[in-house]
Amino acid sequence: MNQDAGGEPLLPLHRTGVRPFTLAQAYRRAKLLVERSGLLPAVEAHLHAATGAPREFTARALLVGLATHGLRQGEMHLTKVLHTLGELPPSARRELGLPHDVDTYRMLWHAFTRLVAALQAGALAIPHNHPEADTATGEVLPCPDDCPHQPITLSTFTGRLLRASLPESLQLTGAVAIDSTDYETWARRRSWARTPDVDPDHLPADAEERREAKKAKPPPNQLGWPRTGHDGRAQHTLDPDAREGYRSGSNGARGGVFCGYDLHLTVNARALGGPEVPFAFTGMHLPPAGSHKGDAGIALIDQVRAHQPDLAEVIADRGYSYCTPERWAYPVRARGIEPVIDLHTNQRGTHPGPIPGTIILDGALFTDALPTTWRDLPGFPIGMPTDKKQALRARYDARAAYAFTPHSRPDRDGYQRLKGPARAGKLRCPNHPPSMRLPHTRPTTTCAPGTDCACGKTLTLPPNTMPWTRQRALWGTTAWAADYGRRAAIESGNAEAKTHRLHLDRGFTRVMGTTKNRVLIAFALAGLNHVLLRDWHAKRRRPDPWATHLDEPQPAPATAKRTRARRRTATLTTLAGTPPS
């Protein structure tokens, strides 16, 4: 068998993906997922009573059944999960502790709701593996270092599931791309509001969207609706946690208001300048729609850091970076993470700098020697041709010679030392004599000799200066485009979850409440990780790490695209009146 550059065997090239998991493959992987997550002891300790009749629908059957159905990429309905359990062979059902006559929906629903109640009450924890007290003296004993006891919160539950779906061989790069997408509640809407009560930091709607909202005439509200929810916000459905929020337009459709949840996701992104990596989901958070995006993003980052302590970069769109610094920029930098962001139109423009002779332009610090013709450059609208993008980025690259550059790494308390462009050797300034010895290919400023310009100065920026927009690469430059372009990882992940593989839209789950929906979606995303990793390795003619771990045959190719293309060509030739060859 041929080998690639790393010595790994090359498998047959798969042109159109691989076949779906069989039930046996899904069951084996589901058992491995539950085992690696470490959640089973905690769920068993809560669901299985120490006294009375033993539980017939076991905790193992609940977790493995949810994981098996998630790996089959079906809608996460409990009735369909029960059907998946019913398809298992008798040996697998005995292994899960399921007699042949107890697979009723009532038992599955009872076990699932007990799990949800424990997560909501904070009553789920991995049990101690040692005596908690001295039987002779009653003294409480401390936990040894190898004791696995740990409270299992909802965030810990979903984080452990997603981390367990990633093999040890998958190299996490320390960079994640983050984004949120809408997830509409299954409950029927009973009322509408003229102005949704969303967080004040959300992105402002454009003029066209505001005009359309004024024209829209919602149906009349039902009697008694809307209600005031437990959080003080308006409740428009029977779902106690679903709220109104904005969703952005996609595929040419205009955005608008929906009722449900904001699904925040993180995806493993490649390192800057590094090789491509699989776009696997590493974290998820599901607050009610219209909740503060910055707070939700920080909660998701903390979930990822619990399993990836070396997280160093987060690539976020304007929905996060537009939040006030106290709710996004400050917490991100306080965790030692470098944000890579896009700028909203309101965040661009020219403003006075922190010291004389400087200006803040498009979120970065420049010397005011920058020519005025380079200060008001246009943005990058959607659909802009590639050649025009490259030409515009060249203009941003040219004006970068007048920008201040970091003199050292940021301090732990957020202070950043910067040096002027003449001191950094990027341009020539008569007020900084060493710079005049630079080649004449560098731009020369028009600063009058003897004036107190800032071209050769060094200054320290406190954390509250430019916190909204500061990042390591200048916005609009080629370097920034390469840095921020890695955000395509989360766009690809969203497309796989909402369109290509799963269909995470209204009706994917038919339960109400944040906890129930989040548990079911977490199992679906964990299964999707297995599918994405298998296909990513197959298309690159590499062994699937989970198939290798389980000693399974490597995935077989599906129907070749070449066959379909030949059949379509023959059909077109026949329609044209020429017999196919």
UniProtKB/TrEMBL annotation:
Coiled-coil stretches: none
Residue spans of biased composition, Basic and acidic residues class: 196-212, 228-246
Transmembrane segments: none
UniProt xrefs under Pfam families: DDE_Tnp_1
Top-level taxonomic group: Bacteria
Domain Transposase IS4-like as annotated: residue spans: 248-347
Stretches for region Disordered: 193-249, 423-443, 544-581
Residue spans of biased composition, Low complexity class: 570-581
Protein name stated in the entry: Transposase
